[in-house]
Amino acid sequence: GPGNIYVALAKREVFGQVDIDMIAGPSEIAILADSTANYREIAADLLSQAEHDAMAASILVTDSKPLAESVLKEVYEQLEHLPRKEITRQSIDNHGLIYVTKTMHEAVSVINELAPEHLEILTAQPDALLGQIKHAGAIFLGRYSSETVGDYFAGPNHVLPTNGTARFSSPLNVNDFQ
């Protein structure tokens, strides 16, 4: 699997001598949200990724400035109650981003450019946007399909392309072993 910085460096060391799945970068989440999304849940989801590693990236892309402002405030409020708050704070301060667009169409373009490892779509009609997403490692649709469900409960695979490589690479799957 992707592991952490030590696993990535070990894979880089043996790459070419043995076959590896991929050299995965720090974990990342992007959340595509509109004004109907719950700002507390978004903040929690951003923090759940940030607590992985000080280099993890947590990004919100929205067409709602009020939502963006509420999420920003809530992130720092929730952060104070986390057991890994120092690592999480480093991640949020150095690799966190809230991007406000004029339209949802522009927000989708930003997501496709980012090509995130994990993408949550938290909009009034998440299914309607799914067909517009061209690049993402794993997509979670709707309020009750958070990325942490994929991390710890559902799905057979959690080796996903990071650092924008979802533009040209797919998650690890059974075909990689045949």
Can you walk through the features of this model?
It is a single chain. By secondary structure, the chain is α/β, with parallel strands linked by helices. 39% of the residues lie in helices and 15% in strands. The protein has a 5-stranded parallel β-sheet with strand order 3-2-1-4-5, sandwiched between helices. Helix 6 links the parallel strand 4 and strand 5. Helix 2 packs across helix 4. The longest helix has 15 residues. The chain is globular and about 50 Å long. The protein starts with a helix and ends in a 26-residue tail after the last helix. The model has no long low-confidence stretch (mean pLDDT 88).
Q: How many strands in all?
A: 5
Gyration radius, to the nearest Å?
Answer: 16 Å
The SSE order reads HEHEHHEHEHEH
Count of helical segments?
7
Can you list the strand order of the major beta sheet?
A: 3-2-1-4-5
Taking the alpha carbons of the first and last residues, their distance comes to 17 Å
Class by SSE composition: alpha/beta
Strand coverage percent:
5-15%
Low-confidence stretches: none
Shape: globular
Mean pLDDT equals 88
The largest sheet, given as strand count, sense and whether it forms a barrel, is: 5 strands, parallel
Helix content: 25-40%
